[in-house]
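Handout, section 3.2

Students often ask what a structure token actually looks like in practice. Rather than define it abstractly, here is a full record for S24 family peptidase. The first block is the sequence as you would receive it.
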Amino acid sequence: MPVHFLAPAAPSTIALPFFSFCVPAGFPSPAQDHMEGTLSLDEVMNIRAPQTYLARADGDSMIQVGIFDRDILIIDRGREAEKGEIVIAALNNEPLVKIFDRQGDQIILRSANPKFAPRYLLESEELYVWGVVPFSVRTHGKY
């Protein structure tokens, strides 16, 4: 799944209301007496500028981990990729989002869609892991 880079994430100065209960589907609105306080999306998503940047997903190779076409990916370039993590990488200078895997010395980039085969890194190929994707943001509706 290719990615399109948007911009570095900038710290937010806006704290949003945070309600202390889970909202069941169909509940019209949270009651004011359940408001716990405020919460910053920077805190929730552990956004640490300037190590965090944004990219847009392109395609359907990661749908089984909840990343869909046009989702915005939150990327932490300050973390080392570990086995099983979703990464943004450049394989032969082509940016992509995949699941990072390793078997011994063999690096494998896996999709999260059975239509796509695992990609085993060959000796002659270059791979640069640009960051780990801990979160994604999806638009629900026509925005």
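Discussion prompt for tutorial groups: The chain is about 5% helix and 40% strand. How would you have guessed this from the sequence alone?
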